[in-house]
Amino acid sequence: MNTKELTFALMMGALGSTLFAISYYAGPIAPGIALDFSLIACLIAGFYAGPSVGFTAGLFVGILPGIMFGPLGMGGVAGLIGLPLGKGLSGLTAGLMAKALKLGQKPRSSLLGVPSTYLSYVPEAIFTYIYFIFLLGIGTGGTVFLTSILPKAIVEVTIISVIMAALMGNTGFSNFVRAHFTKSTPKTKTAEKEQ
C-alpha cells in the first residue's frame, strides 16, 4: 500500500467514524441500537482501491464503534478488537469482489453495486454472529444477533447498496476517487464506449 492509498484509507476511516457518530447520537432506534451507515466508507475504499485498502479503512472505521460498544458498552476489550475486524472484513471482501467482477472497469458495472454490497457484508455478518456467541454465550448471543442485530443490518445494507450503486454509476465521483486516491486511471466516456 502506497502513501496515497494509506491516505485514502485514513480518510475513509474518518468518514466512516463521522457517519457512525451522527447515527449513534442523532438517530437511535432504541437504547444502544441506531442505523449505522459507516460501512459506506469501507465499501468505497474496497470497491475503488482494493482489498488491502478496504481492510485498512475498515479497521479505522471500526475503532469508534469498538470503543462505544466495547469498553464504554457491554463488549469490553473484545468489542474494541471485534468491531474493527468485522468492518475490515467488509472492506476486504468489497475489494476482492471489485477485482473478481472488474467493478468500475466495465460499462454498467454499477448494476452489480447492489449484489456486491450484500455479498461484501456476508463475512462481517458471520464474524458478528460468532462474536456475539463468544461475548454472550451460545443461547443468548445467537438470539440477540438474529433478533436485533441482523434485521437492523439488513435494513442498513439495503440502503447502503443503493447508495453504492449510485456512486459506482457516477462517472465524476469514480474518476475523482481513481485520479486522486488509487493506482488505477480514471475512465472517460470514449474509453467506456470502446470497451
Described by strand count, sense and barrel closure, the largest sheet is: 2 strands, antiparallel
Low-confidence blocks of residues: 190-195
Shape: globular
What is the CA-based Rg, rounded?
Answer: 17 Å
CATH domain class name: Mainly Alpha
Q: Using the coordinates shown, work out and report the CATH topology.
A: Arp2/3 complex 21 kDa subunit ARPC3
Strand order of the largest sheet: 1-2
Task: Provide the helix percentage.
Answer: over 70%
- The chain-level structural class is mainly alpha
Mean pLDDT: 86
Write structural notes for this entry:
A two-stranded antiparallel ribbon has the order 1-2. The chain has nine helices and two strands. The protein has 195 residues and is mainly alpha-helical. The C terminus is likely disordered. Helices cover 78% and strands 3% of the residues. It has one domain: Arp2/3 complex 21 kDa subunit ARPC3.
Short description:
With 195 residues, the protein is an all-alpha fold. Helices cover 78% and strands 3% of the residues.
List keywords for this structure.
single chain, 195 residues, mainly alpha, Arp2/3 complex 21 kDa subunit ARPC3, two-stranded antiparallel ribbon, 9 helices, 78% helix, globular, disordered C terminus
List the helices and strands and how they pair.
Elements: H1 3-26, E1 28-30, E2 33-34, H2 39-49, H3 51-61, H4 63-69, H5 76-101, H6 113-136, H7 138-169, H8 171-181, H9 189-194
Antiparallel strand pairs: 1-2
